Amino acid sequence: MQYGSRGSTVRAAQVQLNKYGHRLSVDGIFGSGTRSATIAFQRSRGISADGIVGPTTWLYLTSGASGGGGGGGGSRSLPVPRSALPRSEYDDPHHDYPALDLPVGTGTSAYAVVGGTATPISSSSCGLGMSLAGSDGGTYTYCHFSSRAFTSERSVSAGTRIGYTGNTGNSTGPHLHLQIRAGGALRCPGRMMLAIYDGTAVPSPASLPTSGCSY
Question: Which residues span the domain enclosing 32?
Answer without folding.
Answer: 8-62
